[in-house]
Amino acid sequence: MLFKDRVAIVTGGGQGIGKAISLKLAGEGADVAVVDINPELSGQAAKEIEALGRRAIALKADVGDFNGAEKMVGDVLAGLGGLHILINNAGITRDRLLLRMTEEDWDIVLNVNLKGAFNCTKAAVRVMSKNRYGRIVNVASIVGLTGNPGQANYSASKAGLIGFTKTVAREFAGRNITCNAVAPGFIDTAMTKSMPEAYREALTSRIPIERLGTPGDVAEGVSFLASDRAGYITGHVLSINGGMFM
Ligand SMILES: NC(=O)c1ccc[n+]([C@@H]2O[C@H](COP(=O)([O-])OP(=O)(O)OC[C@H]3O[C@@H](n4cnc5c(N)ncnc54)[C@H](O)[C@@H]3O)[C@@H](O)[C@H]2O)c1
Fold first, then answer.
1. Does residue 42 form part of some domain?
2. pTM more than 0.85
């Protein structure tokens, strides 16, 4: 069991990649706090974790709310008795070409995807610093490395998350806290389901492994970086993209 006696927070853990990460960590022995803005989704994920024989709590929180994130970490400590792993996974898109992108499109995406990671990390590292142990994994994106038309807000948030990851890695390495990121390519979830079929096909033809990724593909990489096996890896960005960008 990779995560025996470990407590993990997974933000946006109610569906898609976050749910796959929650179930993967639980399957390897972790107790999991599933944090999501949608309580129905997080409640269902928590039930599935309990069915694996682990403890789980579902917490309704908006990661973009600074005080809410601090309260959320307090609730995890009260509910599960510790905190070892933080997965900053919650993320949203508001795609539009820059000329049509509104200030609101920009602000909401940056607030959830980037400030959300700041809020949750700031609250969590206090506890991790005291305990001199922590594993933080941020879910960035291939487009944070490459850019993508229609995603100025999203790609900036994910590029920002990579800079944030490296800084947290440097600031907390001495406390035995590692901080890494994964940069998934195109993963088959609700976020990508809305793409027109022709676009999906064109996209797939650019992926050397010739398929979109699955949430499970991402969960494997996250689980490794969250484990003690990755104890000498920090500030790293792990691409999980089927070879689409090397
Ligand atoms: N799907 C992809 O192709 C892909 C590729 C690269 C990176 N990512 C990243 O992976 C992460 C998960 O993506 P997904 O495809 O599973 O998305 P998804 O939309 O399927 O799931 C996102 C989850 O986050 C929750 N959420 C949204 N806003 C929140 C908030 N403010 N506070 C708390 N929870 C919130 C949602 O309720 C949902 O359960 C995101 O950060 C996304 O940017 C996805």
1. yes
2. yes
Contact yes or no for 25/101 (Cβ under 8 A): no
Per-residue confidence (pLDDT) for residue 195, from 0 to 100: 82
Active-site pick, 133, 154, 199, 232: 154
Per the domain annotation, does 193 fall within a domain? yes
Q: From the CA of 139, how far away is ligand 1's center (Å)?
A: 9
Beta bridge partners of 180: 137
Task: Kindly report the CATH number assigned to the domain that includes residue 118.
Answer: 3.40.50.720
Annotated active-site residue 154? The verdict is: yes
User: Quick check: is 87 in a domain?
Assistant: yes
85, β-bridge pairs: 8, 135
Number of domain units in the chain = 1
What is the side-by-side strand order in the sheet with 85-88?
56-60, 31-36, 7-11, 85-88, 134-139, 177-184, 237-240
